[in-house]
Each structure stands twice: as structure tokens, then as C-alpha cells.
Amino acid sequence: MSTKNKKQFGVWMDSHHAIIVGKENNEDEAFVALGTVDNPGSSSNSSENAANNQEIGLTHKFFKEIAAIMPNIDEVHVTGTGQIQEQFIHFLADTPQYKNAVSTTSTSNKMPAEQLIAFISEHFN
């Protein structure tokens, strides 16, 4: 499979926000912003156990919403702050639809969509 036909995506994420870039169809050469996903985080709870369970559920929902924007991934590069990228890579590896995707990560400061598009374009070229 040539590089031009691979479904390549890039994600900048922290624990509360994600920007997804990719090619709208395989013939397009340019990466574009495909969408953003927000994770509001858990609200206050009466117990630490309930708060932890809610946080796990919200994070899983956050990951599912990101993955829904990227159908049939061949390659994905995830960048951002914190450890959330590693958790997202593990989520993809544990999901049958995405388990064969090639995943790479890096760490970067928050960047706007235009800067992410340039970063991901350079990464895949």
C-alpha cells in the first residue's frame, strides 16, 4: 500500500480537548482539521470512588468521540501534553477496528489547528 492511499490522521490532545486532522478523502493531498472534541471532566461527587468511576467513563467517551472522527485508521500520530496520549494509544490498540493501526506519539505544547496541520503534514511526508 502506498503512502498516498493510507488513511493518516493526527491528533493534538490534552485531558480536556482534542483537535483531529486528516485527509477528507484519499485523493486529497492536504491535511485539514476534521473536528474537535471536548471532555468537560467530572463534576463534584460525594465519594472518591464515584468521582473516579465518572472520570473513567468520561475519558472513555472522549476517546470514542475522537475515534469516530477517524474511521479506518492506517496511521495516527498523537501529540499533546500529559499522559493522555498514551491512554488513547492503548484505547486504540484495545479496539478491534483500530488494533492494526500504526500509532506514534510525541509531546508538544498546545497548538492551534493550523499549526497542527503543518506539524502532521511534515510528520507524514
What is the fold-level CATH name, i.e. the topology? Nucleotidyltransferase, domain 5
Q: Structural class of the secondary elements?
A: alpha/beta
CATH architecture: 2-Layer Sandwich
For the record, give the distance between the C-alpha atoms at the N and C termini, rounded to a whole number.
15 Å
Subunit organisation of the chains? single chain
Count of DSSP-assigned helices: 3
How much strand? 15-25%
- H and E order: EEEHEHEH
Count of separate structural domains? 1
CATH class division: Alpha Beta
What's the Cα radius of gyration?
15 Å
What fraction, in percent, of the residue positions are helical? 25-40%
What general outline do the C-alpha atoms trace?
globular
What can be said about the biggest beta sheet? 5 strands, mixed
Number of strands: 5
Runs in which pLDDT lies below 50 for 5 or more consecutive residues are none
Summed over residues and divided by their number, the pLDDT gives a mean of 88
Could you name the CATH homologous superfamily? eRF1 domain 2
